[in-house]
Write a structure and sequence with these properties.
Mean pLDDT: 93
Structural class: alpha/beta
Low-confidence stretches: 1-14
Strand order of the largest sheet: 4-3-2-5-6-10-9
Number of helices: 9
Radius of gyration: 18 Å
Helix content: 25-40%
Order of helices and strands: HHEHHEHEHEEHEEEHEHE
Length: 282
């Protein structure tokens, strides 16, 4: 058993002040450490995130990533008129904007997130969607509970064991159920996370899977993101019991002039920033 699994939860609860001075590094980070870091980071940063990006995300809009690809146009979960009466699980839902869009089309969404503070923002916007606070690697639902599952930049990039998440999603889906998730495009890991010209020069090996970790002065992770190559992601999908139906790499649209972290019109017109995997339960 991993030692960190035996440690009391508060032993790893980073002081918010020390988290502000976190040091960025590349090192191993296991499942328990990654989960704790993600919960803490999103609880601390949910207010700023919703304040900065809330207008772009809307209260009831389904956006797959910083490029602004809208599910209303992409129909990756299926045509909008087929969503009525479908049970849908949104993983890493944040303030449940995507779930609200689904509910408006007659679906029955459930919005799940690891962060209590993100779900408080969901309640601030409205109480019309069921909310569940839980880890994506341990979904608290019976087998075959949902017709569809989706995740827009939620959970998958932040977990040490993505195959476990895939298997959990497969378990709660009904036969033939669709699972669609978006992540940072793997090629981005070879470039600095900068929106300007300095972000256009390769600075690291694309094949280096060492997690990106921000840690406090005691070496405790306060943010963890896991890099997988494009091939890794495909193999994870298959190992999790899914068929890959499509891999969507949204182009940067002319109307979108915003910068979002390392995403920008400059970079978006040259290299992909988002990868969306459209999968079906095998």
């Amino acid at each position: 058993m991993n030692q960190e699994d035996d440690a009391p939860e508060d032993a790893y609860a980073a002081d918010p002040d020390s988290a502000d001075d976190a040091e960025a590094t590349r090192r191993d980070a296991g499942e328990a450490e990654s989960s704790r870091a993600s919960r803490g980071w999103w609880d601390r940063n949910a207010d700023e995130y919703q304040s900065e990006h809330g207008a772009f995300l809307g209260d009831d809009r389904f956006v797959w990533g910083p490029e602004g690809l809208d599910e209303a146009d992409a129909a990756l979960l299926g045509p909008a008129d087929t969503l009525k009466d479908k049970d849908v699980l949104e993983i890493g839902a944040g303030a449940a904007q995507c779930s609200r869009w689904l509910a408006a089309r007659g679906a029955r969404p459930v919005a799940l997130d690891l962060s209590h503070r993100q779900l408080q923002h969901a309640l601030r916007i409205g109480d019309d969607v069921p909310l569940v606070e839980a880890d994506a690697g341990r979904l608290p639902f019976r087998d075959g509970s949902f017709d569809l599952a989706c995740s827009a930049y939620g959970a998958v990039p932040f977990v040490a064991d993505p195959v476990n998440v895939m298997r959990e999603v497969r378990r709660v889906l009904r036969p033939g159920g669709r699972w669609v998730f978006s992540v940072t495009h793997p090629i981005r890991w070879a470039f600095p996370d900068e929106p300007g010209p300095e972000g256009l020069t390769v600075s690291a090996s694309y094949f280096d899977r060492t997690p990106y970790v921000e840690q406090d002065e005691q070496g405790r992770a306060v943010y963890v993101e896991h890099h997988r190559t494009l091939g890794d992601r495909v193999r994870d999908v298959v190992a999790g019991g899914f068929r890959l139906l499509d891999l969507v790499e949204p182009e940067w649209p002319e109307w979108n002039g915003q910068e979002w972290g390392g995403w920008s019109p400059l970079r978006g017109n040259l290299i992909p920033g988002t990868a969306i995997f459209v999968c079906e339960r095998a």
